[in-house]
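Sample pair:
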Amino acid sequence: MLTVHALRIELGKSYRVAVDLLSEMPGVLEEIGLTKLPHYTVLRTWFERIPTKTWRAFLGASAEKRTGHAAIDSTGFDRDQPSRHYANRTNYRVRALKVTALVDVETLYITDIHSTTSKKHDAKIGPQVARRNAGDLRSLAADRGYDAKAFRDELRENGIRPLIKHRIMNPLDHAHNARMDGDRYHQRSMSETVFSSIKRTLGSAVRARSWWLEFREMLLKATVYNLRRSVRYP
C-alpha cells in the first residue's frame, strides 16, 4: 500500500485515475508483488488507516544518505480549493498549509517534515523537529526566523552546532553572526532548492480534505522526492 500510494503521488492523479493507469502497467505491478490492484476506495481507506508513524518511517527509509549537516526552513503549499458548500460545512478557512522541512544540505534528502494550518512561529517548530532528529544531527542551519536562545541552548545540549543568524538588536549580535561558519550557514538555501523541486515536479498544492491527511500527503511528496533522488544519484 505504501508503494501504491507513492506511485499515486508520482503520477499526480486521483485515486480512481491512478488505479486505472496502474492496471495498464503489469511490469510495475509485478515488481511490487501485486497480481491485482485494490479498488480505488480501498486505496483511499488505507491512506487514512495506515498510522502516521508508518508514513514517517517510510520517509526516513527513503533518505538513504545523511551527513548530519542539515538546514530547516518552511514554505506554503496551497490547500486544494474545495466547493463553497464543503468549505462552509467544515469551516475550511485556511487556504495554505505551512510546511517545514529538515534537509541534509549535502545530499539534499528530506529527513523530516512538519505541517500546520496555524500561524505557529518558526522558533516553536524548529525545536520540535530538531528534538525528533537529535541523534542524526551534527549542525543545523536556519534563518533569523528561528532565532531563539532557548533553541540554540537545546541544540548545543544535544551536541548539535547551531548555525542560526541572530536578529540585530545590539553590536554583540553582529559579532555572533560574523563568527558563524559562512560556507556551512549559506548551505541553508538548499532547503529552498528542495521545496522548489517538489513544487515543480509534484505540485504546489495538497488535495486531502483534512489537515492530518494533508500532512500525510506532504510526507508522501517528500518520500517520492527522496526516491527520485536516489534513482537519479545512486
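The CA atoms of residues 141 and 184 lie 8 Å apart.
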